[in-house]
Every structure is written in C-alpha cells, then in structure tokens.
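dude i think i finally got it to work??
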Amino acid sequence: MPWTRFGGGGRRARSAGPASPLVCRWDLDKTYLRSEFTTLRQLLRTALERPDQKVDVPGVAELIRALKAAAASRGQTALVYFVSASPPQIGKAIRAKLALDGVPYDGIVFKNQLEQLRRGKFRYLREHVGFKLVELLRGHLAVPAETRELCFGDDWESDSLIYSLYADVLAGRLAPASLTTILTRVRVDPLLVSQVIALATQVLRRDAVERIFINLDRRTPPATFRLFGPRVVPTFNYFQTAAVLAVMGRLRLEDVGRVGTVLVERSGYTARRLENSLDDLVRRGHLSLPAAERLAAPLRASGLLSPLPSPRSRWRRALGRLGRWRRPARPRTRSATEPGPLDYDAILARVHPGARHVAASGGTP
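look at this
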C-alpha cells in the first residue's frame, strides 16, 4: 500500500524532514508489559517470571516495529528507548522478552533500587518522577539537537506528568526555579532534583515532543488528562494510538491495520469495537471526522472494519452526529504542537493531591 498522509481539522499534517531523527521513548510496565506489582507478592512474581511468561500489551510490539519501518520508508532514522522503574536485576528477562517479540530497540535503562536502599531512602522506592526525568534528559542530550520525539506511558504512575515536564523543559517553558518547586511538591529525592536542574540547563530549548500517548490500563477517565492539553493523548488500546500516529504521518495505513488485526486475534475485538475506538477519538477531539473517515475507508475495504451501513442508516447516523455537534462546544484548545504553558498547580492538585504546597520561587521564562 502506498504511503498515505492525513491531515486533521482541515489542516495538513506537518511532515518531518528526513534529516530530523525520530526518538520514541517508552515506559515498560503497563505500557509494553502487563505487569502486576501493586503488592509485594506480585512484585516478586514479576521479578521471577521467565521471558515467555511475560505478557505484552496487545498491539504494542507491532506498533514499535511499524514506527521503525515507517521511518525507514521515508529515509528517516527512528530510535526506540525504554525507561523502566523496574530494578536492573530483571533486565536479562526483559531483554529476552523483547527479543522473543521481535521488538527492535536502541537502549533500555532500569532504576537502581538498591542504591536507594543503601542510602536508607525507603520512601523513594516508589517515587519515579525524578529518576525518569534524569534519564529522559540524559537521553535527549545524547541525540542530535533536531530530533523529534514521541513519548509513551500509562496511567499507573505519573507518566503524563513526567513526560509533560520533560516536554516543557525541552521547549524552555519551565524555568529552573519553577521546576524545582514542582519536583519538591511531589517529593522527589533532593539529589535527583539537583541532577534534573543541572541537565535542564544544558538543553537547547526546542519544542521537540510531538505527542505523549498514555495507555489507559487502569481505565482512568480520559477527562482526567484534559489539564495536560492536546499534546497528551489518552488511548484505550494501541489501535487508537496507531490511528493518531497515522494521521500525524508517523505510520502507514497498513500499520494501523496490523495493529487492529492483533486486537481482533488476541483480545477479542470485533469490527464494531474497532470502529467505536475511532469514533471515541473523534468525540474526544484527537481525530477530525474527515481524517477518521479517510482512515476507516481502506480498513473497511480490507474487512477489518464493518462495511458502511445502508444509505438510510448512514443518514440516521449522520443526523445523530450533527445533533452532538450542535451541543454547546467546549473552548477550542491550541494545537498540540504549540500547547503553551500548563497549569501545574491544577495538575498537581488533580494527579498528586497529596503533594504539599511549596511557595514558588520563580515563574516561567
């Protein structure tokens, strides 16, 4: 199938030149693997699992391979890096699982929990904001300055907050004093706060992060993420993620079809359920209706989505959509590529209600 590019909202998608490498930064647990670690017993079981016992989230392996292949088809380099809060002791099993799934990747880093234990910092064992920010910033400083980035996380920890802070630091929207205030409020290890600030002063202030995808493993209501702006895209499955990436021009149509096929074969999805996934993206404003319909047409032709209903049913459905459009519209948000400064006070009150307030010592630049 020839390369196809989509535009959303009546605007053509911005194409990334072949000279701009693409970096995809992935969380591991709940984003790539279906890991259970809410109890000590589950944590131990996860650590002792053999590679063939570990279960990947349906569609994720196909999506990662597709991102690499689609970039290569347009003469672009795509790099895949994993940042995991899991201990390095399970690294061998994780690498074996990635090899078993045929997932190409360019780097992986784990959290050294033993170092926290050695320092007696027990309460930082489950705090991952500082660790992940340090590793993300180190990773960014190691790639070419013109690199574009996509970030993938889940709704179990603080990935939407971590990636948003990371994106705003790269774009120069967070002054060191403001960043310090936020990290202190979420009780990041002071040693890691210092490392984050030191790394943040070295970035070149480019708006490098195109989108942040959050896998709703816990089925968190998507409205929870509105405070993060349009750059954050919460998705219920990787077919939705693939659809948005295709409209952005980061995947090919056949890649979306492959991910959808995996959901049908492994997760019991039906053609109707996949179509509902597309409709959900339109309702939430992550896809325009014209873009979704252009995406759906070849998927229907391949049999992955249901054929179009009869003309009479189609008109009834169109009228139903028209009725929804005539409801009072929410205020329009800015483009995901120009999100503007986020209200981190409101975000912390929502996603970190236990974060203690610290007087701000500086504003955004």
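The radius of gyration is 21 Å.
im so relieved honestly
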